[in-house]
Specification:
9 strands; 3 helices; 23% helix; 7-stranded antiparallel beta sheet; globular; alpha+beta
């Protein structure tokens, strides 16, 4: 609840222009920025942030731990990508800022991205937003706050 109140206050105090962005950091390793015009409500759970627009969930950010049996976050992403490809979902490498790597599963209309921070071996960021927003939001990935 405290996070939601903080986010709402941040919306109020950052001004009214629609090109301003809000940074969301579901943990200390990852953050993304989303333009205010795409957000009218946010629900925050442990390691999960859901973004709403017009009272409809439009996307989410989620932190997933890397399983103990994976040797690294990169190896875990490779395994996820292989499984996704075998299930017939088109995947492609994501264009991410330096220090991050990942792939997108291009589900029709609503891709999902799996991102790892090169210096973080214990979790991955999962991003899912509509086609119109996905690449723009994924391009803002940065270390968390």
């Amino acid at each position: 609840m405290k996070i939601i109140v903080t986010l709402l206050l941040a919306l109020v105090f950052t001004g009214c222009t629609s090109t301003q962005s809000i940074s969301f950091s579901p943990n200390v390793n990852y953050a993304v920025s989303i333009e205010k015009k795409h957000i009218d409500a946010v629900r925050s759970d442990t390691n999960d942030v859901t973004i709403f627009q017009n009272e409809t969930a439009v996307g989410f950010l989620r932190i997933e731990p890397v399983p103990d049996d994976a040797s690294s976050a990169s190896e875990f992403l490779d395994t996820l990508r292989s499984i996704t490809d075998k299930n017939g979902v088109k995947t492609e490498s994501m264009q991410l800022p330096t220090g991050f790597s990942g792939f997108a599963a291009r589900n029709p209309g609503h891709p999902t991205g799996y991102v790892t921070h090169d210096e973080n071996a214990d979790s991955i960021l999962v991003i899912s937003f509509p086609d119109a927003l996905f690449d723009k939001i994924a391009g803002t990935v940065s270390p968390g706050i």
